[in-house]
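Handout, section 4.2: multi-component inputs.
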Amino acid sequence: MSVDTSKVADTNAGTAATPKKPGKAGVVANWADERLGLGTLMKKNLRKVFPDHWSFMLGEIALWSFVVLLLSGVFLTLWYTPSMGEVEYQGSYNPLRGVEMSEAMASTLRLSFDVRGGLLMRQMHHWAAMLFIASMMIHLLRVYFTGAFRKPRELNWVIGSLLLLLGTLEGFTGYSLPDDLLSGTGIRAADGFMKSMPVVGTYMSFFLFGGEFPGEAIIPRLYTVHVLLIPGILLALIAAHMLLLVYHKHTQWPGPGRTEENVVGFPMLPVYAAKAGGFFFIVFGVSALMGGLLSINPVWKFGPYDPTKVTAGSQPDWYMGWPDGLLRIMPGWESHFWGVTLSWNVFIPIIVMPGLMFTILLMLPFIESWVTGDKRDHHLLQRPRNAPTRTAVMVALMTFYGLAWIAGGNDIIAIKLHLSINQITYFIRAAIFVGPVIAFLITRRWCISLQRHDEQKLLHGYETGIIMRSAEGGYSERHLPVNEAEAYTLTAREREEVWTPGDRTDANGVPAKRGRLDGLRGKLSTLMYADNVQPVTKEELEAAHHHADHEHELQASLEGQPADGHQFNGHHAVDGEDLRGDH
Amino acid sequence: MSIDHDQDVTRAERSDNVPAIPDPGLPEHTWRPTDVDERLAKRAERQVATLFGLSSVCVLLFLVSYFVLDVGDNHTTFAGFGASTVALGSTLGGALLFIGIGIIQWARKLMGDHEISEMRHPARSSDEDRAATLEALALGAEESGIGRRPLVRNSLLGAVGLLGLPAIVMLRDLGPLPGDKLYHTVWEKGMRVVRDVVGTPINKADLEIGDLVNAEPEIVFAVDEEGEHVLEGVELQVAKSKAAVILLRMDPSDITPAKGRENWSVDGIVCYSKICTHVGCPISLNERKTHHLLCPCHQSTFDLADSGKVVFGPAARSLPQLPLMVDEEGFLVAQSDFTEPVGPSFWERG
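Output:
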């Protein structure tokens, strides 16, 4: 194996290439650099290091699907007419010919049936929107579960959460535009939501619709919001998200040679650029395949919007499902006082709850750092098991979300599974309170036992699955030590300290004044850390090794026995090994 | 702040924060088969080029599909699908995927795969930079005199703050004020109840017990002397969205009329608003045996035999009932408009 390794870089600290006489490209580069000074900027970033892990790709899916959305969306605007003016449809789709409908619906049908590739682009746009929101959610979970939101990245968490919120609103405005029966039903429900708001509700509804529902203003207004206002903000926030990512440098998993102080991975040019760039084509290609092969939102089947009609099984797009589910399980409470009406049954699930959930989401990094008192920078990721309470909090939130989402499909579940819709609803009314608590407790204990398992593995080796019988007839399982890299990775995490209210003193040694929330903070910190398994210390490790040596002595008499089988444990080559020796 | 900072130092300095096992350092780089075997590298090169070639083939097929397959009145079908969309989607998808897979294959097999290491730097600026920035800010504030001349500062703040008012006031014309619009519908005394879609009046004898009819006020279909619709466009949509009703005929003995509503039904025929009092979906799922009406949006269920009371689900208020009678020709007509606002609750409703 003779390889020329002289040209392989293993760091970015190299000597600059000697300038040669510039070629044609050089002339262009010189022209640009003299005006833009790109050289300095690019020197820093062309070989910027990005660590490699499959889970770092989730955010990329969101980024690239947004690009697909921009491209396919521009195509759609060339034919779509955002108008509620009534026309008689005379296009190619027979069943609706001669039917009165809005220009928005008619132009959507024209796009679907009379423009080559129009339906493809419509469906690509809708599928890419699904990918966009789904990948943002999964990316958010990844960032949370691995602790990548910690200092200095809290603001990027906030930006990411805003992106998710805006993406959801963008999705809602988008699927409202065709003005078909389903989307009109959604807008009508939104009108009901607004009217539930105290004091301003009725006015908001009249101002948004330009009069009474449905009016003729809502589609053009939503169109402007959908193609200009929200995408503009999204674009700006995505740019900020990326810039902060580059500035902070990506987080990485701990491992041999990967520390808080460095970042190890492939350079941006060529490997990362190629992989990320190639991945753009893959996301684009998958969207195109989905758009071509999987039908989505067939508006011609729903027909144009008619305020007196509705279809059974009306469902919003899936990401709107959870507030819709809360709306379904909410008891019918309404208060009348001082001559006004307050519809708790609508106001709480659809106005208060999404706002509350979003606020909780935004606050998570700040709550955690307040509870733990941890104000240090963190660039190494944590496994979810190593932050049991954090993991349990998110699983509890996911359980809440999931139950609410299931409630949003209670009619479909009742029909498909032949269940009573009333019983499903009663069940979820209780489960939405109990479920997250159970999920929290189970997840937290589960994580802690996984931590114990890791500790066992480190101290006593991994279980080989080989059962040995001693001469006395006793059985024992053979443990073998984990390799050095894995052992290091298991120990490479920080010792956690429960925050206690008493131990703070200022620079002069004067005890700090006890804050009002200090008691709560101490309790939460105990909940957060006290039960966790801390990384093993040098002493524990030495003691365990000593113990293991002793055990090996006991097992020494068994070495070389036929069919002991441990040579097949995958830790060394088995060429030439026989299961039954010649003993 | 300083307190936390002090704590940081002690934490960072704790010796037991050092991992029990020393960092073995980055593992040895392992060479890929394509690094050491020129033959395999050439093969990977051919693979990548083939993938790019396949992409070009897909683009050609895309162009052929675009021009050959018809859309519109007489579209080409394939397995029940519009062939154009399927073919364009598959070929475009293929063209993009082959490029993507090719580039990634190139990166994995042929590009250098040495992981390199880079040092991190704290996000915070250095103390000197902070000091310089603060100094510059202080200098700027000093030279502007913003601290020394509160009159200038406060009047500017006031002026800029007031600029918000035009921005808010300008939105006033987004829509008219609600007024009493939500309290009324187009129903009035003597207006016929007609079938939706076709617009024919309904004779009470037309309905059997258990029949449910989606109905609307006659004015929705009315035309004037010149043959023009009385209600058109927005007006028509607004009228329909509030005035749609449900007619149901049941055994008169099943009905428990509320006080004051004893004469609102005609021979067991009752008429209720079709607009859900929850968030305003049109209700249409009727359970014949129980005369319960279920809203398909959020499953609020109303009992039409008992003044439209809510029996299940998130709605808080009964469905408004339209008082019915028959005109001299025996057709069902309204006694008056609804006696309460239809549709979802709102703040001013009382």
